[in-house]
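Reply to dn_fold:

You asked what the input looked like. This is it:
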Amino acid sequence: MIMLSNSSPVDILSLSSLEVQSKYIYPSFIFGTLLYLIIVFFNLLVLLTIIVSKKLHKPMFILLLNLPISDIVGATALFPHLLFSIITENRHIPTKACLTQALFIHIYGTGNMMILSAMAFDRYVAICRPLNYHSILTSKNLIRIIFLVWFINVSMIFSLFMLLTQYKICRADVVDLFCNYPSVLKLVCGYLTWHNYYGIFTNIIILGCPLMIIVFTYVQILVTCIKTNNPDGRRKALQTCCTHVLVFLVLQINTNATYILHRSQSQLTLLRKAFGMSVVIFPPFLDPLIYGLNTRELRQCIVMFLRRNVGSTK
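and this is what came back:
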């Protein structure tokens, strides 16, 4: 049984101040707008290149296709309201809009974790069990993996927020620069025992399971690479895996640092806000650059895609 406070529900919330001086409002708005456009452009570029290039219609790139989709969701959940609040100097946000922003930001974060786990499994099969690669990663199995990634992601995050809506939000001051689950949870009134249990279970699934999958697969890959007698094959395998590990570490370190700082009631407010923003900004910005630059096959197809489409407009 959920017990609620007698406090009236709050309809308008106040986000933490950006502390942007008046002379920096327009430069900050322009910089933020350009950053958002760059993120969307490069992620769309990777997305469209994979879609139109038959050469890239392979399990690794089909799985990678989901990453820019997730990154665009995360960036779009953050930037439009952030830019609006910069230019208007208004940090208020309706409660429903705050919950919606938090929902999509967490769908983005969880989605990235699970997509990277699926990509790690693909590399594990390709390097450790190459003879069985095409029999394991068939088109049907690939569709099943992608469906499972998005189903687990959306269903778990959506159910977490549906449970949250059963409580009254009776405080108005959001402790972060944007709405996320930990900051919204601090605004509710009532006994949160069962909700906290479900939250811990959700974190184990969406943070712990991807971490275990990636650690297991890359340990196996590293062992296989050490044992192989083909130096060129070893180099290519390690280069591909290093790309995945780098992207995963950027997301994992920022996410866990933010979570720990929220849970520990730390006074390092500025650090917590910085980590929180970096979770939503750096992965969407870096992912297409890392994969585009370090994956030769994708890089070549991006160049061909740009030449073909830019040339056709002249």
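The first strand starts at residue 12 and ends at 14.
Hope that clears it up.
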